[in-house]
Amino acid sequence: FRHLRFTSPVNIKSNVKIASGTSAIIPDSENEDKSSVEQKDVVSRLVSGSYAPSLSTFEPAFVRPAPPIHEDSNELLWMNPNSCEYTFEWEPLFVSNNTTEMEIRKLIGKALKATLPQQQQNFIREEINKNPKMIYHIGLTPSKLPALVENNCKIALEVLLHLSQSNQLTEYFTVLVNMELSVHSMEVMNELLGRVVLPPEYIHHYITKCISHCENCKDRLIQHRFVRLVCVFLSSLIRNNIIDVKDLFIEVQAFCIDFSRIREAAGLFRLLKQMDNGGTELAS
């Protein structure tokens, strides 16, 4: 037996009657020589406590030797040092770069709201030229580009030029093409097209947008100003062979005829005629 049990007669459905005698450890309840207090005391001592006799067993103790320690020369040893002293080594270049980057980030935030002094603009452009990867960490997203173009177009141009080798240029250029037409946006676009090769469909879309903006402008003075800018812009693209005028010949020619009273439009029209007639000399 694993340990002693106190049982009483039990009836089982199989009509077998199991009976057990009076326990050899706990006194019989019918023994009237012991008082009830003494009986409770004996029972309490037998069944209570960590080393209660009723919990003892007759099971023999099997000897289980500890397994040998596995030794492997290639095994990583886990070490828990009790006392360690740590010293910190600061990287001066890392701190310097972070400081400069944080300063550029602050200046870019100001550049989105107002025109920066020339000294600060030069500082941003110089730092970007030193570390071109900085443009990915100064917080300038495509959605913020129009504000930068309007307030600090030279900084915007510098950023776009360094993005020319990145796959993100398409996102920024899409925003630039679709932003509201202005003198600064045209200046950035003109400089960008002269230094970076862009997909023709973007250029054609931008030219169409410029022409449409001039035609829909209600203020005559502002309209004439934009017509002059667009004509100078188109003439520059044609002379530098940035666009193939044949793709937009009809649209640009109609634009020049509509605003033929403006000198720049008349000059652009003559340039188109020379290109159409196969002339080699361009109008001055």
How far from one another are the termini?
Answer: 119 Å
Largest sheet: 2 strands, antiparallel
Radius of gyration computed on alpha carbons: 47 Å
Total number of strands: 2
Strand content: under 5%
Low-confidence stretches: 1-22, 280-284
Total number of helices: 11
Class by alpha and beta content? mainly alpha
The proportion of residues forming helix, as a percent range, comes to 40-55%
- Mass-distribution shape: elongated
Topology order in helix (H) and strand (E) letters: EEHHHHHHHHHHH
How do the strands of the widest beta sheet line up side by side? Answer: 1-2
Estimate the mean pLDDT confidence: 79
Protein described:
With 284 residues, the chain is mostly helical. It is 51% helix and 1% strand. The chain has eleven helices and two strands. It has helices at 36-47, 92-111, 118-130, 145-151, 153-162, 169-178, 183-195, 200-216, 220-239, 249-258, 263-276; strands at 10-11, 17-18. Strand 1 (10-11) and strand 2 form a beta hairpin. Helix 5 (153-162) packs parallel to helix 7 (183-195) and helix 8 packs antiparallel against helix 9 (220-239). The termini are far apart.
